[in-house]
Prior knowledge:
Elements: H1 2-39, E1 41-44, E2 47-50, E3 53-57, E4 63-67, E5 73-75, H2 79-84, E6 91-92, E7 110-111, H3 118-124, E8 128-132, H4 137-144, E9 149-152, H5 159-170, H6 173-194, E10 204-210, E11 214-218, H7 223-230, H8 237-244, E12 253-255, H9 261-264, E13 268-273, H10 276-279, H11 282-287, H12 290-293, H13 296-299, E14 303-307, H14 308-311, H15 316-332
Parallel strand pairs: 5-6, 5-8, 6-7, 8-9, 10-13, 13-14
Antiparallel strand pairs: 1-2, 3-4, 10-11, 11-12
Amino acid sequence: MQQKYSLKIGITLGLVSFLMLVLAACGSTVSNNQTNEKSGTDTLNGQSQAVAMREYVDATGQKINIPANPQRVVTTQYLDAMLALGVKPVGAASHVLEGDYLKGKIDGIADIGNPTNVEKVLELQPDLIIATEDTTPEVKEQLEKIAPTVSVSFGGGDVFKQLQDVAAVLGKDKEAEQWIANFNKKAEESRKKLAGKFKKDETVTIYMTYGKNALRVYGARNVGHVIYRSLKLNPPEYIRQKLAKDPKYNFVYDSISMEKLPELSGDRIIMLVYDEATTDGMLKEIEQSALWRNLPAVKNHKVYFIKADPWFTYSPLAIDQSLDEAIKMLTAGTK
């Protein structure tokens, strides 16, 4: 009788021990699942590893869980800003890889095309994708299946806001503020170098010739950022009035006809020649016209010709190099 009783106790204790092991395993599984929901998972060498995640609200208002410390980033636009922050993406769009001013900084970065080659992006196995707010819904949907995809506004602010927005995605806010502070200090030093080289009320007009028949006059974005904002040179009255109504510097340029040249041209002219087609097209037509030859800036040999690279690109490293070129150009005389 005692043997049967002992046997029953043994069986009972065994069942209890087994149930405790099962519950412990279940508890461990639940705990891991909760951690994954908060941290996310990644796979390295066939093993699952926890990845810290955080919630981010992008330019479209969408809430997205993104890696707190992304390691493999692909961007469709913000290569320049990323490099300024010390982050080298694994892939970037074709058009942002073309600038000579980035030479030596983009080695090893894969070209994902323009428009975006989704298959190429997939091959790169990114853990984060940074796109623009105007990415088509079809492309964005495909990108979101590959990795968390954040939209950053390109036209929603100036070049500094762009840098800050990209930094917020990458967790590089301090680096962005430091870059901006360094640039502003450089701009202040550059203004001192120009002291005495410009008369008090002297004005500068920025034009761009594009292709066979396009002529633009610029405001304080893109080409105008360095001239009007960094160096604080005086725009012609037409541009001054435009900027006075535009505290956020959203005004980029106006397309104009050649007949507007006498009205808009300041004491000095900066002419951006966009491409080779321009040289034999719109620029040639302008230079052969009496309107151009009679401009005071032309008669006084105060016309400066610049190339699209880096001046046309509106991003941090581009304006930094443009500032260097502006000082060399404006202190050396006309070209």
